[in-house]
Amino acid sequence: MAISRLLVVDDDKEMCAMMVGWLQRNGFAVVGAHDGAGVLQQMDSGRVDLILLDVMLGDESGLRICQQLRKDHDVPVIMVSALSADDHRMAGYRSGADDYIAKPFNPDLLVARVRAVLRRTRRAASLAYRRQARVYRFAGWRYDTREPSAQAPGGYEVALSARERQLLQVFLANPEIPLSREEIAEAMDVLGEGASDPAEGRAIDMLVGRLRSKLEDAPKDPTLIRTARGIGYVLSCPVEAET
């Protein structure tokens, strides 16, 4: 897997250098910038996987830069600011930020938040890529996204509800990757039909149970959709996708 390349944007050069150094020591490739022009230069010069963007950049507004980035790029943005009131946070989210961290912050928390945002966006990107696929093959099964059923290894058809097909597509987009209930609900929302309430993990548990009852030989001892202890669920087999 490629090392994530991060861009830290802060007009306080000492703070910028501190963040760059800490993130580098935690395994990231990191570059720094101090203004909007520096952001555009870095975006044009190479791959950027995530931006840590200060809200106040001298005479420039990080919120405005974030809004401009959202028009032209899909790169995730974490706003960083000494302004921690709820209205400031909401302004950051309205500008298109994926997360908001208030200064001063624990450096370990910063790393954790960066990794969480990268994980979410990578899975969403994986899902978006695989949404173009029409046929999936896994563990002897064949699933055509244009059909209301999946073909079992024995050749017979197993009918699936719309929500079951949606959940199955999330697993097929992320094979062998443990997914939390929240991530599953968010991915279902990416597919366009969202869970009734993404915060209700119990609803995801029930839906997983129904899907297991149709795909597993022994639903109470599943081998395909396994429980990832302390995380959620994982499709434990490789998947082939065809367009």
What does this protein structure show overall?
By secondary structure, the protein is an alpha/beta fold. It has 8 helices and 15 strands. It folds into 2 domains: 5-126, Response regulator (Rossmann fold, 3-Layer(aba) Sandwich), CATH 3.40.50.2300; 133-242, Winged helix-like DNA-binding domain superfamily/Winged helix DNA-binding domain (Arc Repressor Mutant, subunit A). The protein has a 5-stranded parallel sheet, with helices on both faces. Strands 11-10-9-8-15 form a 5-stranded antiparallel sheet, with no helix packed on it. A 3-stranded antiparallel sheet has the order 12-14-13. Helix 5 (107-130) crosses helix 6 (162-173) and helix 6 crosses helix 8. The longest helix is centred in the middle third of the chain and has 24 residues, at 107-130.
Summarize the helices and strands and which ones pair or pack.
Blueprint: E1 5-9, H1 13-25, E2 29-33, H2 36-45, E3 50-54, E4 56-57, E5 60-61, H3 62-72, E6 77-81, H4 86-94, E7 99-102, H5 107-130, E8 135-138, E9 141-144, E10 149-151, E11 157-159, H6 162-173, E12 179-180, H7 181-190, H8 201-215, E13 225-228, E14 232-235, E15 240-242
Parallel strand pairs: 1-2, 1-3, 3-6, 6-7
Antiparallel strand pairs: 4-5, 8-9, 8-15, 9-10, 10-11, 12-14, 13-14
Write a concise synopsis of the structure shown.
By secondary structure, this protein is of the alpha/beta class. It contains eight helices and 15 strands.
Low-confidence regions: 192-199
How many helical elements? Answer: 8
On the 0 to 100 scale, the average pLDDT is 84
Extended strand count: 15
Structural class per helix/strand content?
A: alpha/beta
What's the CATH H-level superfamily name of the largest domain? Answer: Response regulator
Content of β-strand: 15-25%
Q: Specify the CATH class of the largest domain.
A: Alpha Beta
Work out the helicity level: 40-55%
